[in-house]
Specification:
three-stranded antiparallel beta sheet, eight-stranded mixed beta sheet, 11 strands, alpha/beta, globular, single chain, 39% helix
Length: 302
């Protein structure tokens, strides 16, 4: 396995225990990368490889995922933002370019609102701006998440006889039907997510964390207020296809046009022919993301 598929990891003390954090690179400015709701730091290797030698690429496992799965609640965007500030403090880093994919974009925006002095620029990848109106209090959040995430959340309650059985499960995911979508990074991502021993392999993702964060993305007033209160430069990188490879992405062109019109610090970038996953887990998507991160680094204050 090449080094970029096996980054160094270290632990950062946070409320309730230690956060597992991955690092690619030892020198240069810091990029702080935040993964999606059921993911881990292992969604980022292609992006990190593109930036090799240019920066320190820092990617935590959010509490309830990966190596941080045993960290207790409370969950939610504010809790994750506080954990990320702890990561910067641990590294003695004053400010960073903060990158967030999917739910990680919501965390990044909330972090930039509450800790503006720690964020020089935001790179939001298919996330960061509210997707739905706040639901009624009696709405079943778990049902909404199952509809939106499909197999990604289903696997949190499953066991697998072998690694190959889990690979076969993921290969049926709608987002994996594009040519090249199942690749070395995605296989490493799935492998890292598994714990236990055959025939009782299961996901490291803590379902309570997913449900807690899922509810917060729907009801959090801070999340809804954050994009309008962020003053640093922002770029929204969009995939034209959705979580389940739907032909309509999370942020269609008309929505993106409205967002740019209402946020004078926002730039819009559409990555052609990718879905919500492959915008970061394919070499072509990762190249575009890395280019926008470089642009953000170039504009960051010295």
């Amino acid at each position: 396995m090449t080094d970029w598929l096996a980054p160094e990891t270290f632990e950062v003390p946070v409320a309730g225990g230690n956060l597992t954090v991955a690092r690619w690179g030892d020198e240069g400015p810091v990029i702080l990368a935040i993964h999606g709701i059921t993911a881990s730091h292992m969604q980022w290797p292609y992006v990190a490889r593109e930036l090799q030698g240019e920066a320190r690429f820092i990617a935590p496992d959010l509490r309830g995922r990966g190596g941080s799965r045993d960290l207790p609640g409370p969950y939610g965007m504010n809790a994750h933002a506080d954990d990320l500030v702890a990561v910067l403090d641990h590294l003695d880093v004053e400010r960073a370019v903060v990158v967030g994919h999917s739910m990680g974009g919501f965390v990044a925006a909330v972090m930039a609102m509450h800790h503006p002095d720690r964020v020089s620029s935001l790179v939001l990848i298919d996330g960061g701006f509210p997707l739905l109106d706040a639901p009624a209090p009696d709405v079943d959040v778990e049902q909404i998440l199952h509809l939106m995430l499909g197999p990604s959340i289903e696997r949190c309650e499953m066991t697998f006889d072998s690694f190959d059985a889990c690979f076969d499960f993921w290969k049926q995911h709608p987002a994996m039907q594009d040519e090249g979508a199942w690749n070395e990074v995605f296989q490493a991502y799935v492998t890292y997510d598994l714990m236990g021993e055959p025939p009782e392999l299961r996901s490291k993702v803590n379902l309570d964390a997913i449900l807690g964060d899922g509810r917060d993305t729907l009801v959090s007033e801070d999340l809804r207020a954050a994009p309008g209160n962020v003053r640093c430069p922002m770029v929204l990188i969009r995939a034209p296809r959705g979580i389940l490879n739907e032909p309509k992405g999370l942020y269609p062109d008309d929505v993106a046009t409205q967002l740019v019109a209402s946020h004078d610090n926002l730039e819009d970038v559409l990555v052609e022919d990718v879905n919500h996953y492959t915008v970061v887990t394919s070499p072509r998507g990762a190249k575009v993301v890395a280019d926008r991160i470089r642009h953000a680094l170039d504009r960051a204050p010295v």
